[in-house]
Specification:
255 residues, alpha+beta, outer membrane lipoprotein receptor (LolB), chain A, 12-stranded mixed beta sheet, 6 helices, 12 strands
Length: 255
């Protein structure tokens, strides 16, 4: 007589458990796949996190980062009062150097502290109503002219060398701010802040490291600028004396 009692537990047929198990495993796999896919598609994964902020806060952080930085390389085009300016300026808190071009002429600007120097060819000076005319224009060609603070030429061009003033004017966005679109600027991941659905300007803010502004598309098609080399050194040195012409208190009318 067997000492092992018969198994009286009722079991479903062997194949009847499989559909339930398969369904549960499939559901678990689907949930896991969705979770992994969701993480992979997170546009802010591995970033500085500013892309998760409201648009106004992103813009504020970008402006604060720009103001705190010692230097920046600004390049691109600006349309102002019907004129197009092509800028290639390296700006620092105590000066700047670079080139500005219009449809008619180009010139170099150098500011070291309070001293502003302008270098252009004779054709530029000949066309400057505020500058010296006639024979003196030839003397000015390809020389650095030290521009007196009271001269109209200083007032017109010194703004291109003032980092804080220039950025404050350029980084302004006009209209209700929205954010969310992602992009890249020279290989750097960015989040875009748009004003007025883009009509008031669009600012690309870095998602890597410090949230610097990297590109500005100005309102009304008034130009596009790139901002790079944040915090990198700018070589600011006054020209050698033999390269400088100093007309004293005012360039206008100098002979």
């Amino acid at each position: 007589m067997s000492v092992i009692p018969p198994d009286t537990t009722r079991r479903p047929p062997a194949g009847s458990r499989r559909p339930g198990l398969v369904a549960r495993v499939a559901a678990a796999c689907a949930a896991l796949t969705a979770t992994v896919a969701g993480c992979a598609e997170d546009p802010d994964a591995g970033t500085n996190g500013v892309g998760r902020l409201p648009a106004a806060q992103i813009a504020a952080k970008a402006k604060a980062a720009a103001a705190k930085a010692d230097t920046v390389h600004l390049s691109g085009k600006v349309v102002s009062q019907g004129s197009t300016y092509t800028l290639d300026m390296r700006l620092a808190g105590d000066g700047a150097r670079g080139e500005v071009a219009t449809q008619a002429a180009s010139f170099q600007l150098l500011r070291v502290g309070n001293a502003l120097y302008l270098k252009a060819d004779a054709a530029f000076w000949a066309g400057e109503k505020a500058g010296p005319g006639g024979g003196s224009a030839a003397k000015l060609g390809d020389k650095y002219v030290k521009v007196p603070a009271a001269d109209p030429v200083h007032q017109r061009f010194s703004g291109f060398t003032d980092k804080d003033t220039l950025l404050a004017g350029l980084l302004g966005l006009h209209g209700e701010l929205t954010a969310g679109n992602r992009g890249t600027v020279d290989g750097h991941r960015t989040v875009q802040v748009a004003a007025g659905a883009g009509s008031g300007g669009t600012l690309d803010v870095s998602l890597e490291g410090t949230p610097y502004p990297l590109r500005l598309q100005r309102a009304g098609g008034a130009g596009e600028l790139k901002l790079s080399d944040w915090g990198k050194g700018v070589d600011l040195k006054a020209p050698d004396k033999e390269q400088v012409l100093d007309y004293g208190q005012k360039i206008a009318g100098a002979n």
